[in-house]
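Exercise 3.2. Students should predict the tertiary structure of the chain below and write it as structure tokens, then compare their answer with the key that follows.

Predict this chain's 3D structure.
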Amino acid sequence: MFVETHEELAKLELIDIITKLGLGDLFPHETQRALEAVLSSNKKTKNGEEDLYIIALRFKLLRLHGYDVSQGMYVFKGAFSITKCTEIKGLLELYEASFLAFEDENVLDEAKTFSREALMNIYSTLDTNTAEEVAHALELSTHWRVQWFDVKWRIAVYENNENVDKRLLELAKLNFNSVQATLQKDLREISRWWRNLGIMEHLNFTRDRLAESFFCAVGLAYEPQYSCFRKCLTKITTMILIIDDVYDVYGSLQELEQFTEAVDRWDSSKIQKLPECMKICFQALHDITNEIAYDIQELNGWNVQAILHLRKAWTGFCKALFVEAKWYNEGYSPSLEEYLSNALVSSGGTVISVHSMLSLGTDEMIDLLGKSEDLVYNISIITRLCNDLGTSTTEKERGDAPSSILCYMREMNVSEKEAEGHIKKMISKTWMKINRQCLRSRSPDLLVPSSFVKVTVNVARMVHCLYQFGDGFGVQDQQTRSHILSVLIEPFHLDCP
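Answer key:
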């Protein structure tokens, strides 16, 4: 198809479809060659104007694949009028493209506002299939979604589209089932590990979220070659949840201080006076961290530096949780800035990024830990803010430390609705920074591995998935359960000859 497709629009549509069907990783070289040809030609139509659909689609795909194209390159300016946007495809692509904006790209800001309003205004006039696509985009942009979790939905939509080659859909279903078989094998192995660990038998105050933790790992890296990484990340996520609950709902301030010191010194002698369940938590953290460090060493040949970086990440996490516990016990209400400076660590983003960098890396990877700080910082902001939007009400009732919403309400003396609006704007602006940092990560002076960048950005997408409709992690709701069944358990039924 790549060879036989000559028209620019047809090439762009092929790349767009295979990406949405989860097939992009199967054709990286063909995609790159096609996009480079598009970039070099940059043709205009005979009358000097192009349809908004091809302008937006071209811009979206080039920027999505790391090409440094400007918002003005494809003459977005002046395109936002009803007369030029009567075609729904153009509006939808314009809206999706606007989510790849950098900071201060005012034209793309205007594009998002215009296209969103236009789509909402014409929504009631659309046919069922088109309306479903529009509603899906308006609910959450494709760029903010976990791409692999969207594959089944895309296949269902394209099955009703006569213009989509049915061979692509057949390949997408085969690929999905093949990947799912690998994921099921991983889940069986990590479930066996969890049962053998037996930690939940002694901790009645914490959440048992193994399936959700593995689901998150899949959201970060679904590809079959990342089995070891997924299992490592599942272990980490379960420990993040358990330790978070130790600080939020179990330990007294004095006990938490001792626990934090024990983690800081990595010394089990400091926990001897603590309750038995806290001793079990510390020992589990100690053993799992050493286990993961050993796996990383076997995989990548790390030396002692790996375990030191892992310990440092867990120490920072526990210290940040202790700060929040102190705030709550003292009745202290931090400013939003103060809250976020601490919450960036207490969100667990740093723990995940350090483990990801070490698990996915080569010998030079440790030296790159500092070079990706800005990206990790902004991913952590998204993690905390999305979490707060989804869990603010529940955590306020449960008695946790203040959320970003509550901090902003008190600091600015505004309503909860106004505070939520402010947090949503912060999320959008942070995504703009992430878009820029993804592009910069490819520069010769950084060259942060694309696997790490992809996994790290998928953290932000995963939290959107988890907290889009509430607390999809803390509460085992039907939405999360349905997602897990669809991605991990239910295959496509194929009509094989």
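Discussion points: The mean pLDDT is 88. The chain has 21 helices and no strands.
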